[in-house]
Amino acid sequence: MLIARYRLDDGTHHGILEGDRLNRLARSPFETLESSGVTDAVADAILLAPVEAPRIFGVGLNYIAHIEESGAKPPVRPLFFMKPSNTVVGPGEPIVYPREGSNVHFEAELAVVIGRAGRRVPVDSALDHVLGFTCANDVSERVIQKEEMDQGALLIGKGFDSFCPLGPVIATGLDPSNLMLGARVSGIDRQASSTSDLLFGVPQLVSYLSSAVTLQPGDVILTGTPSGVGPVVPGDNVDVWVQGVGVLTNPVVAENANVGLPRT
């Protein structure tokens, strides 16, 4: 099942994507998947980020090949950080290259969307708390990120507005243990890997995070990026793809460009 969040002239809705139609839900997918009985044409809809203003939990150094290319030691526990909710943009919306930026990187990631609240969730039932999965781009300004991390902090380097594209849909029923994912920059393949290379898998991440934080419906967990990360510049288009989810495409624009407000 592919769940979309979208805008029409009469407002914002959620629906099940089936071909060129959206079967509108009666309420939020975090409440029910019951149909409203209304169908909408995809051609009439603007796809939005599939979750509105979520809490975003990121994980660093979680793909074995990426750890090796970074020259880092494998973590003994998941290295969680947070991104502000206003980093989220949806499909087609711009990644804004900030005036302070000098080395901005893309990071293709599988994102976990929590569907059911929980605290101290056991590993063997962690997926019961997951609604589904989407594509994410954990955009990062590396110079600021390194300066922060050298001092034991991490926020601004990954926290600029628009630094977390999500979408295009939430896919349910996927096995997150062996999904292909990757990224293209302006049509050139830059990342291609599988979640089988994760150091800590999705159930372990959900369980570990919930040992400290009560997870809420709509929370988003970014599971880490594989090897092959690299820079983007204004004028680039970044495609992040995840098997079973689809492709998330965003242009990169300079901050002083007239890009308008996010759709979220």
Automatic annotation (TrEMBL):
> In which domain of life is the source organism classified?
Bacteria
Q: Pinpoint the Rv2993c-like N-terminal domain residues.
A: 1-50
- GO molecular function: any one? metal ion binding
One Pfam match: Rv2993c-like_N
Biological process, per Gene Ontology: carboxylic acid metabolic process
Q: Which UniProt keywords apply?
A: Hydrolase, Metal-binding
**Family indicated by similarity:** Belongs to the FAH family.
Which InterPro entries does the record match to this protein?
Fumarylacetoacetase-like_C, Fumarylacetoacetase_C_sf, Rv2993c-like_N
Source organism per UniProt? Nitratireductor mangrovi
| Record-annotated Fumarylacetoacetase-like C-terminal domain positions | 56-253
Q: Does the keyword Metal-binding apply?
A: yes
Protein's UniProt name: Fumarylacetoacetate hydrolase family protein
**Lineage, opening ranks:** Bacteria, Pseudomonadati, Pseudomonadota, Alphaproteobacteria, Hyphomicrobiales
Please verify whether the record's keywords include Hydrolase. Answer: yes
